[in-house]
Write a structure and sequence with these properties.
Heat Shock Protein 90; Arc Repressor Mutant, subunit A; six-stranded mixed sheet; four-stranded mixed sheet; 19 strands; about 20% strand
Amino acid sequence: MQESNRVELKEKLTDGLEKEVVAFLNYREGGMIYIGIADDGTSVGVDSADGEMLKIKDRLKNNISPSCMGLFDIVRETVDGKDVIKLIIASGSDKPYYLKKNGMSEKGCFIRIGTASEPMTIAMIETLFSSRTRHSIGKMKSNKQKLAFEQLRIYYDSVGKTLNDKFADNLELKLEDDSYNYVAYLLSDENGNSIKVAKYKGTNKVELIERNEYGHCSLIKATKSVLDKLELENKTITKITSKERQEQRLWNPIALREAVINAIIHNDYSNEASPQFEIYDDRLEITSAGGLVSGLSKDEFFEGYSLPRNKELMRVFKDLDMVEQLGSGIPRILETYPKDNFKFSDNFLRMTFKKSQVEENTQQVTQQVTQQVTQQVQDVLNIMDGEISRAEIQEKLGLKDRNNFTNNYLKPALEAGVIEMTIPDKPNSQNQKYRAKSSQ
């Protein structure tokens, strides 16, 4: 390992860390800082990685302006058997970033040039400031100011984190005048945002057979509902031949999840447009508004350089473990799907995933059986023990949204014939229970 325009090596945590971070925030490609690795690439490790990581987060939060929360990721890695800290920094959209104590000046603003962090000239500072993004949702005022965040609190509690009374300030959900911004509106319990999932018969939009809207609630809840719906659609195809058993999902589940999260986080909500998900007989199309973020080229996009359009959303999704390391999403998608599956325009970005086909061995095939069982149906079947009520099934599956449970789990399990009602002639009876259907 050696230093480059995107890599800085530090033997230990020093007072100059913020300067290096500012330089990468102002650099169009971002970069990485390794702490615990000497200049010659030798791993020396850090004594207390967890403690040092907390110090770093606190220092970057308090010593850099504009806020860089959501633009960096801190992870612990093992190099030559020793713990080191890897700090991943995305290029920011609110350039120029600077050290708070020195202000927006030549002593406070830095940029990466080669392997060094160099002071910016006044001309560079003024140029960057004049082109600063002015229409980000973090700077837009929410038309609705009476907002509730109980859903967001529940999701934070579910990952062992608690939102205190200052969470709106800490998560950058407020403007300087203490009013809620548009990010807060999207994350609140009730809003006008809605994500559409449509299903068509055939390979065009002539015949719509199903249309679902997930929204008017916290964007986190809507995202999870979309993921559940597409998981339901992502059937496992099983083919049994005389030689082998073949199983394959319609779409790679890892790439699919990354694509959904990427489309929702990086969507341009400034014009109240939401991502769209469209399922055809031969493909899935995921369309997000906004095209490429200004300053990011196609090559940089595919290489995983991170320039978050909505850094506040990125931070919340990372807090809730819905996003891994910055910049990891697109490279993970490209492990399965080629670059040709991405189409760019000035106003939209579309990802197209063709449905997989399980290859059939044509030699000496004596029988072929195709089964389509969704994971949700299997989950329901796995917890069935005697006769059990709807509420008990939902609780055992750990699902809080009744509509999501009914539409994506209970109904499909009934339709698949793997469970049955104890009172089939009165489906809405308050005494209704369900049991696994015996095969005869």
